[in-house]
Specification:
The protein has 372 residues and is of the alpha/beta class. It has 16 helices and twelve strands.
Amino acid sequence: MKLTAGAGGRAGGGAGNRAEHSSMSPLRVCIVGSGNWGSAIARIVGKNVQKSNRFDSTVKMWVFEELINGRKLSEIINQEHENVKYLPGYKMPKNVVAVPDVAEAVRGTDILVFVLPHQFIGRVCEQMAGHIKPGAFGISLIKGIDEGPEGLKLISDLIREKLKIEISVLMGANIAKEVADEKFCETTIGCKNEKQGQIFKELLQTPNFRITVVPDTDTVEICGALKNIVAVGAGFCDGLSFGDNTKAAVIRLGLMEMVAFAQIFCKGSVSISTFLESCGVADLITTCYGGRNRKVAEAFARTGKSIEELEKEMLNGQKLQGPQTSAEVYKILKEKNMLDKFPLFTTIYKICYEGESIQNFISCLQNHPQHI
């Protein structure tokens, strides 16, 4: 199933669509998170809800409160319509309203857009529980995984479990600043509910942010998490001056491990074609050449400083996903006695957290099972 927009139009858009929804209560939207990606998405959502009667014109955005030069970040956003810490220089539509209390932000909301570091989602969901409107549904833009009693637990599983809502996912080759600059890109929504897929597409698609909807939600989400581990390996290549041929090998071997991991751990069927969508090979490539995981891993290789030190020095309060995801994947693989089948993921974890020499990275590539 792929949902596509009509020629020259927004999916589900147009006068007929507006008339169809004019008699229904407009859907209220809340963005849960306000980092650089959350703020970039808020710019899109804030504009799109004003073009359709399907949505309420006010978009709430939960903001983790911080003081910026003595002023509350939520107040700065509401007065200046700019996230001066995480996406400076980009104005948000005035209908995007920052709310520092997550329970208040989500109250009465029909559509929840989750976009925050995966380390925090469990705690935030606990604060939201009991405040969710019956019939609400959501979409997760969070790239990461967790571990559960049966091994892999996806972030969407965690949200579904804690909030009892239907949840879809959006993953793709989407560096936040480029999206904010309105440079053309593609993305993938994994959604099993066709009607909700249409709604998400209308909410999020623009002429320069093009969306494909597929039903293979678990694979879409797995791609979004695992590519960040591979990006750490790409950063090691850059820091060690290995060149583009070696980085290409890291990307290929990383993709092979991503496919194998999905085939073993996804509960549903895995479509190889999903890896050819933006959430798969495209996101993997862009993350291995740009993005924070590659950047910090390169500095790790050059300076010898710890991941934690570099995160604080280089990311202005943002969080890395790749190293922590490698730690979660390592635990899952160790529990299943499968470390030897995923040498790239395993070696990246050991270099980041167990003091293994970064010089061993090339040995991992040379002796990868793909070459035996």
